[in-house]
Amino acid sequence: YAAYTLEKDIVVFSEPAEKFKRVGLYVIISSSLPADVLSLTHRCVAGGADCIQLRAKDADDDSRFAMAVEFVQICKAADVLSIINDRADIAVAAGADGVHLGQNDLPIEQARKLQLAPLIFGKSTHSLEQLRAACKERPTYVSLGPVFATKIKPTAEVVGLDYVRERTEELADTGVGNVAIGGITLDNVGQVLSAGAAAIAVCSAVTEASDPTAACRALKEKIAAFKKE
């Protein structure tokens, strides 16, 4: 049991996990088109994103893996954390820093068995019940949301700012990080940070912007300014 606990602690406090604690801006690229994915990755890196997730749900395995390899290379060259959505096997094979798992994906305990080196493990949560269950899996971080209405998941129930405030307080002494997600924009990011979010995840606010690099930069500046206060 002691060895098992130590193994879990090594995962939670690994180098990628420690680096994740410094993440402020987390961008999700939700596309299965290689040209779009790679172009957006370059632009987000240039804009100062700390962490980028590749969410290519509609791609077949060959295409998703090929995209992941190039995506990871771009991120590593810029010292930006790379996360693969859903697929721990592709994250490991492509050399990504981590994997983000949804409620219906492989349990973290099983995903850990695939890692060749310590990975960042993220878990989506949308309720108090899901959050507490996720914490038992000892992820690096949990996502909290959707904070506001979002086009990515239009049917999802909005959790709101009070929920973020309460859950970040609950997570404070657990060693599990938090990322607020869902409908976050330059206009409301200050409210989300004030509610206690450690990191901010955005998708359309950056990827659908006329200038994704500028959109990243503006969000990063707001986050940095808030953390200096």
Write the layout of secondary structure elements.
Layout: H1 2-12, H2 15-20, E1 25-30, H3 34-46, E2 51-55, H4 61-77, E3 81-85, H5 88-94, E4 98-101, H6 108-112, E5 120-125, H7 128-135, E6 141-144, H8 160-171, E7 177-181, H9 189-194, E8 199-202, H10 204-207, H11 212-228
Parallel strand pairs: 1-2, 1-8, 2-3, 3-4, 4-5, 5-6, 6-7, 7-8
Query: Within the largest sheet, what's the order of strands?
Result: 1-2-3-4-5-6-7-8
| Regions with little confidence, pLDDT below 50 for 5+ residues | 1-12
Q: Count of helices?
A: 11
Radius of gyration using CA atoms only: 16 Å
| Known CATH architecture | Alpha-Beta Barrel
How many domains? The number is 1
Oligomerization category of the chains in this entry: single chain
- Which superfamily, in CATH terms, is the homologous superfamily? Aldolase class I
Query: Structural class of the secondary structure composition?
Result: alpha/beta
Q: Describe the global form.
A: globular
* Mean pLDDT value: 93
CATH top level? Alpha Beta
Give the percentage of residues in beta strands. Answer: 15-25%
**What proportion of the residues is helical, as a percent range?**
40-55%
Q: What composes the largest sheet?
A: 8 strands, parallel, barrel
Distance between the ends: 43 Å
